[in-house]
Structure formats: structure tokens, C-alpha cells
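Technical appendix A lists one of the benchmark inputs used to test multi-chain prediction within the project. The record comprises two sequence entries:
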Amino acid sequence: MIRNYRLLVMFLLLLLFQHTNVKGQEKKLMYGKTPNKIFPYNNFQKAYKYFFLESVPFLGAGREKLPPKGLKEVRIGFLGPLEGSDLVSLGKQMLNGANLAIKEANDKGGYKGIPFKLMVHNDVGLWGAAANEVVKMNDEKDWVWLGSINDVVSHVALRATLKMEMMMVNTGDPDPTFTETNIPWLIRVISDDRQSSYALASYIYEKMGHKRIAVIRTNSRYGRVGIMEYMNVAVRLGHPVMIEERFDDGDTDFKMQLDNIKRIAPDGILIWGNAKESALILNQIRKLGMIQPVYASDRVVSPEFIKIAGKNAEGIVSTSPYNPNANNSKLKSFQKNYFKNFGEAPDVFAAHAYDGMSLIIKAIQKVGLNRVLIRDILMDLKTFQGYQGVTGKIILDQSGNDIGDIFMSKLENGKFKFSPVPKF
Amino acid sequence: MKKTDIIKQTKLTAMIIVVFIIGTLSYNLSAQNKKPNQNKMPIYGHWKNFTSNDGLPSNKTYCVRIDGKRVLVGTNKGLAVYENGKWKTYTIKDGLAHNGVLAIDVSKLTGDVWLGTMGGLTRWSAGKFENFTQLNSGMPNNLIYAVICDAKDVWVATGGGAGKYDTYTKQWEIFTQQNAPMHEPWTYGVCEGDGKIFIAAWGGGVVEYTKKTKKFRDYTDPDGKMEIDLFPDDGLVHDITTGTSWANGYLWVATYFGLSRYDGVHWKGYFDHDSGLTSNFINYVRAVGSIAYLCTDKGLSTTDGKNWVNYTTNNSSKNGKATIIVGTKKTELAMIPSISHNFVLGVDVSNHTIWLATSRGVSRGELLK
């Protein structure tokens, strides 16, 4: 009888599936260098549709448009936090990096003897303001533009850049969702927080063997979206985060949040925020007598963090989108020239802006002054794929996102030391 | 095995077979009932294309709206108006907020034309232009992606939130993540229908506003993941939405990942691999009656939810075709000339005419059947 009921169930299932017109994709390919075991729902259910497996082409007109005659300068837009933002110090480094690439190109004759000119725009991190700046870039006839760091600014600007049909090269926004929009007018020449999260999760759970992690993160979008992938991976690895505490940028007292974390007695603490607040939190963790290992998002890899955290910074582990100590002749030359021009060492935003601007210049020199052709060559995943920049090899995926190597960074004897990320 | 057991087993097997036959018959009958009616789908042809050679200020057009006997076209070099067989252009010199005109709607109440531009909102009334910007009126953002007129109210979708302008009180009401269920205030489409306003919120799916109660609710992709759509027909195909349009009891939602339709109870998803949709990259959607007109990067798709008619061109020539898909049957109709360009950004239809805004001018088609 049981066998017959099974037969009945089988037939009913057969009937049921006759009625559903399910035509899921046959092939499944992973996206974002995501290992099988931490791909969303992968252990339970094959998805009906996988996105970002193929580049989205731009199929509009415009390639036939001839360059204007009598140009006096080749304008390239720049959008960065230069005034009225918590990220001004990062924005200025980004501007310096972009300017250095422009200067070097102009020293070699610019574009067919016409100098490149950076058209600088300030982003203040306000909702919507970036859209107006992109319109200004369009009105001033920029050919392509570079920016920004703040993810709010970048997202708003991205939709505007699609309407203007003007290529955007981002070198500072680590928001994973930024390139997950299918807009074919963007590449990001810096790794994102998806890659940072994978590296940190692998290090924390698999290399260090921790199971109970507490998170304290900024309440900004950088913190909310940045920590998202880490939290997801933690769950998929079977170690959901024990507590997630939040703070506002500019806060200086974190006792309430840290008391909550202390009560839980986690194996380790992960801080996700800007350099200043992260350093203050670390100091207060130690002041409370908490001796757990501390991990942090990559904004701690900065002189500001080391200066504020002092000796407490010793041993902190983070990630870095590149290795500033790499044995790379291009990098060493860049570091030397940067110091000569600006009197300070370049940071991560300066180095990536230099690489991003170098790609823009090379693209213009290859295809000329046509926005669509500049877009085409920057996004073709051939011409510049594997480009050896000062930050290392740039590898873009089908969404235009940089999935090249990133590094673990650990502060030892007052200096960050960089090493390959552990694999899952 | 006992004889009684054998009888029981035989009866059960017979029952299974009967259930199977009934099920199969009912499926076939229901499939026949659902069989699309080709006559319901309008087919347009006799295309006439207009470019800068014909008087348009630019070939780069963003939107089109039929307004009685005239046609309004938004371009990157101003507003073009087609009337009595001639084009006339209006720019910032005439009073527009910006030459980039991204969206147009006409008030049924007053006949005023509302223009969403890259530099503010412009009202064209009685031959005069009046501009609304962030600075002079408290509008959410100057870059306006969509505008609609809803009786005395004018709604805009911007990257800084959605806005409602009451033309009687002359007051703006702004909707962002602070007072509406949006993940972010980035809005790119807005439509009205069934006593509601439907806002396409980038990353936040669709935000529904019920006018009577002034209450919001949102619709998002249930799997919550950007890189996949876990189940078909379980909700929006993606949270990155680009446009909404409501007609005939259906809400149609455009994304760069596919199309969604909502009947108030069930969601239905459409992708290029499982339906007649010509491309998943949908710039704009407009629903009129039972038909949704989908402006994609690979041509114009039209559908009633089951049948499809797609209009494409061979971009290197003036020829193209209409592909008619009824169930699994696909037929092609040559179109000489065809639509101007496959990258379609805007559409409007009236009784017997369709107008398209494309990446290379505008196209006008006539209803064939």
C-alpha cells in the first residue's frame, strides 16, 4: 500500500510540474569570486536566474559622432569629497592621484598635443547633490569622469551618468551593490567590500578558528552595506554574528555599545567604520579591559588610525585593496613622484585614482574623443584586462567590478604588513 | 499476496490512472483557455522616422508624449514639438529649466505641459514657461527622471527623493527614506493607478502610496539578493527598478534585469530567456489598456502578458521587422522602413498611432490591425 501511495504522490507531482512553466537558466556560474559554499542559497536551492554573468553592452547610438574641431583642452570630470565632508582627507589624496596622472600625460604631449584638463567638482555627500554635479560635467562637455568615495554620491551619480551617456570610472567606493546595477557606463578600479568581507571571514573563522564574533559598525550607508556581505557569509559558515552594535560618524564615546559587547564575551571584535572612529573604539575596547583580537574594515589602514590608536593598534588585522609595499617598479616610481609633488606618501585612494585616471587617458589616446567609444574600450574586458597599475593587476568582472587580488594587512611594530588573503 | 490485496492494489492503480488522465485533460483544457488571442495584440507599421535632418534639435531623444494633435519630444537639446507637419524647438532661451528634457506629461485638468529636465521642473502654460528648482521651490532634486500629472498634483521622481507638487496650494511634499519605506531616496519612475501612486525606487523596488489614506507600503524582490532571482513569479525580479506603469488592473515594473507584472495578488516575472521580451534591459514602460509597451535596448517589446509583438531594426539599414509571438508560434513581418533605432527610451500611443523616442530620432507608426 505504501508503495502505491508513493506512486500516487509521484503522479501528482508530475501533474503539478506539468502546469508550471519553469524555465530557469540551465547553467550556473558564480559571480564575484564567491565560493560555492557561501553563494546565496546555494546549499538549498538553485536560483531561477543568475545575474552579472555577462557584460551588459551599450546598444545606443553615438559611435559615429566625430570629435569636435579646434579643441583647446580635453576635459575630464572629477567628483570627490573636497569640502564639507568627513572624507575630505581621502578626497584630497584621490584628487592628487588623478592630477598626477594628468600631469604626467600632459608632460608627454596630452592627447595629440591637446592638454588634458581636470574639471573638479566637490561632493558633499548629500542625497541627490551628485546628480546635479554630473549634469554640470555634461554641460561643460567632459568626455569621461572619475569619482567618488561616498557610496551615496556614487550611486546617485551613476544613474545620472547613464542618462548623460558619459563613462564613470570609480576608484574609491567599496559598496558591493554599486556595480550590481547593470548600468553599462561604469567600471570600478578598486576592490569592493564583498572581497574584503570574504577575506576577513576566511581569516577570522577558518584561519583563526573564531566562532563568536561581535560587530560594531558605523550607522552610515558605508557601514550598513559594507558589513552586509560579512554578515551573510558568517551565517552561511554557521557562525552568525553574536551582536551588531552601531555608532554615528563623529561619535567619540562608545561605552554603551562596548558594554553590550563585553557582556557577550566574544572571541573577537570586528569594527567597520572610518579611521578616526575605529581608532577611538579600539582605545575604548582596551580601556574596558577587553583583550580580544580586533579586526577592522580597510579604512584603518591609514596614518590617522595609527596616530590615534597608538600602541593599541598593534596586532589589528584588516584588509587592503592593494599592497603598498609590493615589489612593483610602477608603484615605486609613483610613490616617489607623488611625494615629490605633494610632500606626503600616497594613500590607497591616491594610488587607485592614479590607476583609474591612467586608464581613462589611455582609453582616450586609443579611441579618440567619443564618449561611447571611450566607454566601449574601458568596458570591453579585453583591452585593459590585466592592466598592471601601481595598485597591481586590474581584473574586471562582467559587471565592471575589480576582482583583482586584495591583501590582508596586520599592524606589526607600528607598520602595516601585507600578505595574501587566505582562501576558503 | 492475498486476493483482497491484489484487488485493492488494482483499484488504486486504476484510480491513479484516472487522476492522471483527468489532470492531463484539465491541463490541456486550461492551456487552451489560456491560449493567447492574437487579435488582441495591436500591430504597428508604416513607420516614419524623424531625425535632426527633419527638424529635430537632436537625434538623442529621451521621451515622447502625444498631446491631441501635437507631439512633444524631449531631447538633449530642448523640447521639440511636432504640429501640422512641422517641428519647433524650445530651449533655455525660451525659458526651459534645462535643455535636457527627460520626461513629459500633460495635465488633463488644465492642459499644462510639465517637463522634467536635467535642471529642474518646467511648467508650460498658456505659452509661458515657469521653472521649479531645488532653490526656488524646495523640490527634491533638479535632475528629474519622471513626471506625471494626477489631477491637481504633479509627481516627480528624482535621485533625491520623490516629490508631489500641489498646484492649488503651491506646496511641495517630499518623500524619502525618512518618511517612506525606501531603502534610499533614489527614485526613477512614478505612475498613478487604482487610487495609488507607484514609485520605482532604485534598490528599493516599488513604493506604493495610497492617496486616500496617505499610507505607504513597499514591494521588493523576496530573495533580497542582487545577484540572483531565486524563484520565478515570487515578486519583483529585482530591487533596482527603473519605471512603473499601471493600466487595466495591472502594475508593470521595468528593471534592467527583466520585467515584472502585479495584478494586486500575484506577481509574474518575464525575462528574455523565458518569454517574448526582447531584452532584459528596459529603459521605460508605459501601459495603455491591456498592453504594456516596453522600451528596451534591443527594440520595442509589446505584450498583453502572454502574446508579444517586438519591433526591431537592422541598425545599419532602414529595414527591420515585427516579430509576433503567440504561444510557441513565432512569425515575422518585414517592416520597410522600420523603427529608427533599437535603443528605445520612450513611447506613447493614441488611438491609431504610436510614437517612439530612440537613440537616433523619433519614430511614428500606424496601427495595422
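Confidence is low (pLDDT under 50) at residues 16-21 of chain A. Residues 88-107 of chain A form the longest helix (20 residues). Comparable benchmark entries are summarised in Table A2.
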